[in-house]
């Protein structure tokens, strides 16, 4: 709960809020309003077209803010009569429809791979088919990636995927060495992972920390389910499948690590920001995260990057890991010329080869990390060009991520039907498993499956 530079930090932190009745009311309100109401504050005046975008980095990351502002300056110089307004306003599924109905949504919004089906269904994203098809590299997208932005019924395109990630194991190499483990050989199976966690645990260090709040418990449960070869939903998204023996095995693994092995943190109900802090401060040896967290390790915690490594997800028959990412969608209430300006900036800032090289050089000079491992959005020559640029400006110990980069695991996307509500439902399951030694995995999954099946049934009606 994928996504990969500062823009990557947005999707991998996954600070999801629990869904509430407010979300349902917001959806209803937007459907009643339809596409009515005035456009956003962006628009055309005095011959200048102004477009807003939600990806201005926070002021706590001045290096990323500098890179963003320089990119905006370059774009406005190379695209006369345009103006870009950046806002630090990360996508939030619980407020998106409220903001859209109130004309407070930016013209370009970086969202998650899981969101397009609902946004398309609710007419809450603009059709950009003509713009996307006019971009020379749109046809270079991996078909599995471009399908995320496409309505399977009409073939219309509603977004531009910009970052992708695969979850893996981040670990502290110093703690591995201290425990007698080879830091170049992270665990590859559930059995090894459990054994490593026990060996890494001491009076001051927990072998592993797991997330279970802000929808991240459900997100990680899905990832573990994929490593076991299980499924979360039926192919058409109408049936719950996580109430299975493989789902039970995931919960049993976590329960035994927590209470039998005592190799997990005593503190629970953690989110990813908290587990990253524990990793960065040498209090936890292993966590599950995406590659882009390197930048936060350095900028927020001043961690020595050579002390950390990344390996692929340990497997239990699935030979797979969860992949996700970020996708830009565009405000359907914005004027067409504003959408075009926003679209042009998204393409320019993310995929123009000269801008990419310039930004990578600036990032390295500004102390941002360059060279973190990532999965592939594109195929062919364009992806090769991207890889070469990343290697040219790499300023991180890429040798510490070799096992992750060379992994041949299948990358499985997040379920796309009511994904965030599914994650929220499973949060409570993971929380209970990690806080109650007497919890029954089968009973918990049965109850969660019945609850979430009602959500799927209601969304289909």
Automatic annotation (TrEMBL):
Recorded superkingdom: Bacteria
Pfam family, one: SBP_bac_1
PANTHER family the UniProt entry points to: ARABINOSE-BINDING PROTEIN-RELATED, SUGAR-BINDING LIPOPROTEIN
Protein name in the entry: Extracellular solute-binding protein
Species annotation: Ktedonosporobacter rubrisoli
